[in-house]
Amino acid sequence: MLFKHRKKTNQQEENTQKIIKQESAEFQVVDACEQMIDAAREFEAAREEYAQVTNYLTDIERMENMKDPDKKLMCDAAASIAQLERKRSEFLKTENKISDSQYVQMQELEAEIPRAIKRLEKNERNLDAINRDLRFLESEKMELDIEKDEAVAAQKKVRIYAVFVIAFFVTVVVLCMTLRFQLDVDTTVFTFVGAIIAAFAGTFVFYSYQEQQRQIRSCNVNKNRAIVLENRVKIKYVNVKNTIDYTYEKYHIKNSKELIYIYEQYLLAVKEKERFRQTNEDLEYNSKKLLRVLQTNDFYDARVWLNYTNAIVDHREMVELKHELIGRRQKLRGRMKYNIEAVTGLRREILSHREQVGDKINEINRILNKIAELNMELEYED
Fold first, then answer.
1. Are 296 and 70 in contact (CB under 8 A)?
2. Between 335 and which of 46, 213, 251, 280 could a Cys-Cys bridge form, CB atoms 3.0 to 4.6 Å apart?
């Protein structure tokens, strides 16, 4: 009966393990799908900005290859604009609380700054939450290791108890046989009582051992689950951290509060500069002349060069601007490559568990097909 019960218990445990594995597979696939969607969105955002930066670099090449008459018109207009801008800056110098380069950048990216601030604040909050999750998962793994070690130690004690039970039963049997055969004493009752005690003690030892074994298996399953979660969270961490670091470098800031401050100061400066601009007919005239020349030569974004007239006039500043754009493009390419690798790895993992997710298979197939349509390849060369 004892062995039959043990066999039944093992069968129940095997069924339980199958259910746990199925739930774990479903959890992994659903979580991987969410991560893959996030990575695809990051890739698309980086690809769009990559194309924009590439267009700016193409405009620089157009500028370098312009015909002499157009180039002279462009340089003359740019020199006039730069001179007028310096006069305007002097007029507002006492009021400026941000540098000229910060003002130019805010002016160039004015439309996207409010969204960039919201995204940066959200990413900073997400990064804090991810760090808390990583600390929690690390703590959980340590607790599971401690629980497992305690269960292993308890198993060792149970083995010692088992030896004592066997020794006790053997001692009782030997003593009873000695009394019966040498002293002709009826030891049936003693033998029966000893057997009952040994049986109860053995049953207790067996179930204690099984309980500790179950605890060890449970710790292993939970630790594996924690490791899977930790790996997912680490992917999120790398993605969010890369996005935040790129934003910090792009805007030359240390945190979102600094970006908010710069943007607020920019808005104040805009009001003053706009008032001054309206009275400056020469600046308006030369700006239109510069735009006409650039538009005639099919520039991607002619208006943005109104903010970089110094670079048009000064070759050194143009070289510096070109290097900055190349650096931004390389970092964007790195982000695209990382997300391609992330999607590839997650897709491989989803496919390895896809048959274990039951009625979610259609939704998962739809997500995989949607991702496949995005053409996530590095199409550009630096």
1. yes
2. 46
**Distance (Å, whole) CA 278 – CA 341:** 51
H or E segment and range at residue 244:
helix 188-251
Are 367 and 33 contacting, i.e. CB atoms less than 8 angstroms apart? Answer: yes
CB atoms within 10 A of CB 63: 20
Distances (CA, A) of 354 to 111, 213, 364, 368: 43, 31, 8, 11
Instruction: Give per-residue pLDDT as tens, 24-79.
Output: 566 777 777 788 788 888 888 888 899 899 999 999 999 888 888 888 999 999 99
C-alpha–C-alpha distance, residues 22 and 302, integer Å: 58
As a whole number of angstroms, the distance between CA 303 and CA 339 comes to 33
Token reading at 83: 């001179």
Q: How far apart are CA 172 and CA 193, in angstroms?
A: 9
Determine the Cα–Cα distance for residues 61 and 72; give it in Å rounded to an integer. Answer: 16
113-152, pLDDT tens digit by residue?
999 999 999 999 999 999 999 899 888 889 888 888 887 8
Q: With beta carbons less than 8 A apart as the criterion, state whether 289 and 74 touch.
A: no
Tokens of 108: 């160039």
Q: Residues of the chain with pLDDT > 70: what percent?
A: 80
The pTM assigned to this predicted structure is: 0.52
Indicate the range of 14-23, 166-175, 328-337 predicted with least confidence.
Answer: 14-23
DSSP 379: -
CB 36 within 8 A of CB 346: yes
Six-digit token string for 348: 């491989």
CB proximity list for 257: less than 8 A, separation 6 or greater: none
